[in-house]
């Protein structure tokens, strides 16, 4: 009966996560940014275009803490918010 569970010589080959997959924020390092973004969405009837600055700040927090891969903000669709200059960051 144990031979029925033997699948031969195939072995598991690990692979990196798909692009867009990243670790959860288990320690809440970016919780305040996420909460501001979610509040903005609720206040604006979930019209995400009105909350792009909050979304950008949240993604910057995740990248700074290695919770997602570093990507240029322009590549993530925030080029119009950077103007080639770093913005002042606020944590409040």
Compact summary:
This protein is mostly helical. It has helices at 31-43, 52-64, 79-82.
General description of the model:
By secondary structure, the chain is mostly helical. The chain has a domain at about 30-80. About 35% of the residues lie in helices and about 0% in strands. It is built from 3 helices and no strands. The protein has helices spanning about 30-45, 50-65, 80. α1 (about 30-45) runs antiparallel to α2. The radius of gyration is 20 Å and the shape is elongated. The model is unreliable at about 85-90 (pLDDT under 50).
What class do helices, strands and sheet pairing give?
A: mainly alpha
Percent range for β-strand residues: under 5%
Distance between the termini: 62 Å
- What string gives the helices and strands in order? HHH
- Tell me, briefly, the overall form: elongated
Helix content: 25-40%
* Arithmetic mean of pLDDT: 81
Characterize the largest beta sheet: strand count, sense, and whether it forms a barrel: none
Low-confidence stretches: 85-92
Number of helices: 3
Q: How many individual β-strands?
A: 0
Q: State Rg.
A: 20 Å
Topology:
Layout: H1 31-43, H2 52-64, H3 79-82
Helix pairs in contact: 1-2
Give structural attributes.
92 residues; mainly alpha; 3 helices; 0% strand; disordered C terminus; Cytochrome c oxidase assembly protein COX19; Cys_alpha_HP_mot_SF; cytoplasm; CHCH
């Amino acid at each position: 009966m144990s031979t029925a569970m033997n699948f031969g010589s195939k072995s598991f080959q690990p692979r990196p996560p798909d692009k867009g997959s990243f670790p959860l924020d288990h320690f809440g390092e970016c919780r305040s940014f996420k909460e501001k973004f979610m509040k903005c969405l609720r206040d604006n009837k979930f019209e995400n275009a009105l909350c792009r600055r909050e979304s950008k700040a949240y993604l910057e927090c995740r990248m700074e803490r290695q919770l997602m891969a570093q990507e240029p903000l322009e590549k993530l669709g925030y080029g119009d918010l950077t103007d080639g200059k770093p913005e002042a960051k606020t944590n409040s």
